Amino acid sequence: AALAETLLASELFGHERGAFTGATERKIGKFEAAHRGTLMLDEIGEMSPSIQAKFLRVLEGHPFERVGGSKPITVDVRVIAATNRDLEKDVAEGRFRRDLYFRLHVIEIVVPALRKRQEDIPELAEHFLRKFRAETGRKITGFTSAAIDKLLRYRWPGNVRELKNVIERAVVLCRGSLIDADDLLLTSIATPGDSEIQPPPGEEEFLPASLAEIEQRYILATLNYTGWNKSRAASILGIERSTLDRKIRRYGIIEDAPNRG
User: Fold this and answer.
1) Within a domain: residue 256?
2) Which residues neighbour 94 within 8 Å (Cβ) at sequence distance 6 or greater?
3) Parallel, antiparallel or unpaired: strands 37-41 and 77-81
4) Where are the extended beta strands (E) located within the chain?
5) What integer pLDDT is reported at residue 224 of this predicted model?
6) How many domains does the chain have?
């Protein structure tokens, strides 16, 4: 774990020759290389506490040193950070620094799960087909209607990465000029929405109700399931956090007070 942390620090901040085993020459880190530009960091929630602290100092404009170095380096970098974790929950549980969270949380863009934007699936599939067709030289012209239907009905627990891998595998294994449904090897792993949401009490059997009543009960059930973590609930419901807040106000949904006996 310590080695992995050192290597991550090296990637971000660079290192001097001899800083650790295998450091045979000086290396410029991502921050230094992105000076006066933009740096995209994925899986930001996986940083260790010590890397988070150093990262925060850089974001606040303080100089940093390369691993094994002592020369202060100052950079001017715009940072775009991405994560699939619930950072609000990680902050509450002490796994992510509160000050770093608020420093990063300037403009938030929530990308819905692939299953919630089905109109993108055919276009992404065609994109990946063109990419892997060019790489492999296969003479595949497109998808059958059965294949597209299978792609649209699948829940995509692995999102776009999974779609990319499925198309790559299909391009390699396809025996004809069109990718058919049988060429698409999909998993049976449940999506978070399938496994995390339990139906509200009384939903197992049909009870006539308006759409507004059903929505109100479902939102309340989701909020109770997540312990009223609104960001997580909004992610599960597939809506923006601000939209969830408006619906809570519209329906007058109130968190139940804990039973203290």
Assistant:
1) no
2) none
3) parallel
4) 37-41, 77-81, 142-143, 178-179
5) 86
6) 3
CA 107 – CA 94 distance, rounded (Å): 23
One-letter identity of residue 40: M
**Residue from 174, 95, 182, 110 nearest 137 by CA:** 174
What is the pLDDT, as a whole number, of residue 259? 45
Beta carbons within 10 angstroms of residue 141's beta carbon: 11
Spatial separation of the C-alpha atoms in residues 225 and 89, rounded to whole Å: 14
Residues 94 and 133 in one domain: no
Domain of residue 60: give its range: 2-104
User: Which residues in the chain land under pLDDT 50?
Assistant: 1-3, 195-204, 259-261
Residue type (1 letter), 47: M
Nearest-angstrom CA–CA distance, 155 and 152? 8
For residue 201, the domain's CATH number is 1.10.10.60
pLDDT given at position 110: 86
Which of 183, 217, 241 is the C-terminal boundary of a domain?
183
pTM: 0.59
Task: State how far the alpha carbon of 224 is from the alpha carbons of 158, 185, 212, in Å.
Answer: 26, 36, 18
| Cβ neighbour number for residue 226 with a 10 Å cutoff | 20
Does one domain contain both 34 and 88?
yes
